[in-house]
Amino acid sequence: MKEILNNKKNTCCLLLTASLFLKISVSIAQTNTNHKESNEKGITILILGDNNIQNRSDPRSAYKNLMPIFNEADAIFMNLEGPFAKNWNPAVEEDIPHKNWSHSNEDQVLALVEAGVSAVGVANNVTYPYQALLKSLDVLKSNNIKTSGGGYNLEEAQKPVILERKHRKIGFIQYAATVYPTNHAATATTPGILPLYVHTAYQPPPQIDKPGQPPIVLTWLDEESKERLVKDIANLRKSVDILIASCHWGVSGTYEAVAYQKEIASLMVKNGADLVFGHGPHRLQEIELINGKPVFYSIGQGVFDDPWNSRNI
């Protein structure tokens, strides 16, 4: 798929999509002769979906088959669905008992270091509880990997990543709609991830005379979350040339986006996002253009050391 995205001084040209990564080439327009980058080649950005690095004796080799492509990139963003916080609480055997899930050892961060990852989104359902988030944030910071979507309070979790590449500013912000009710989402005074709250309702099917039919599922974004999302994206738009918005959402194992995913994507684009990419279903979902901007509802997995080994694309 190849589409042209117009964004003020830049032209973004989508080159390649795959279950492992999304490659974007951003060619710098020649109309502004005041910038010395006018003769430079474009900016290449790589985006990966769900990534989880676990139990590797040599974590530096995790992305070895992708390194020729990674080495060409000016920036690499991904969803880190697995904090580097194993045994954040020595008193519990599993880090997320209700998911039968253990987090990654701190040394596994070397996979991202070797790959040259610029920034990761930490807002997702596996970055839980907030104590594991904070431990992982320290590991990432000590390895010079920037983060979006989590922090010591909501204000910090809302801070985007802004990188400068070839005299252009790239903004990256990540949210999660997959939120546990306690010890997970950031508030004004407590740590956690950057949440978007979603309502779910179940409507009876039209033919109520036939027993056993599934209900119609309705989903919509909470009004307070909507206001915060619109403000975040609009403010970031003022500070960057390229804006990439990301969200952990959807239903695991499904190939179609549900209503609230499309609502969030539309809000992101209408308020300034140049590209929206999602993750969470661990599958490839549809791609569409909203006002000429690409939306990838789920780009599947990058490198995912799945403890269940059951998430094939």
Total helical segments: 6
Q: For the report, how would you describe the main beta sheet?
A: 8 strands, mixed
The total count of strands amounts to 18
Kindly state the percentage of residues in helix.
10-25%
Given the helix and strand composition, which structural class is it?
A: alpha/beta
Q: Radius of gyration over alpha carbons?
A: 19 Å
Mean pLDDT: 88
Order of helices and strands: EEEEHEHEHEEHEEEEEHEHEEEE
* β-strand amount: 25-35%
What is the rounded distance between the termini? 19 Å
Low-confidence stretches: 1-19, 28-38
- Which overall shape is indicated by the principal axes computed on the Cα atoms? globular
Write a structural description.
- This protein has six helices and 18 strands.
- It is of the alpha/beta class.
- It is globular and about 60 Å long.
- Strands 1, 2, 3, 4, 5, 6, 7 and 18 form an eight-stranded mixed sheet that branches. Strands 9-10-14-15-17-16 form a six-stranded mixed sheet, covered by helices on one side.
- 17% of the residues lie in helices and 30% in strands.
Quick description:
By secondary structure, the chain is an alpha/beta fold.
Can you give keywords for this protein?
313 residues, alpha/beta, eight-stranded mixed beta sheet, six-stranded mixed beta sheet, 6 helices, 18 strands, 17% helix, 30% strand, disordered N terminus
Blueprint of the fold:
Blueprint: E1 4-7, E2 10-17, E3 22-28, E4 43-52, H1 67-70, E5 75-80, H2 110-115, E6 119-121, H3 130-142, E7 146-148, E8 150-151, H4 154-157, E9 161-165, E10 168-176, E11 192-193, E12 198-203, E13 216-221, H5 223-237, E14 242-248, H6 259-270, E15 275-279, E16 287-290, E17 293-296, E18 301-304
Parallel strand pairs: 4-5, 4-18, 5-6, 6-7, 10-14, 14-15, 15-17
Antiparallel strand pairs: 1-2, 2-3, 3-4, 8-11, 9-10, 12-13, 16-17
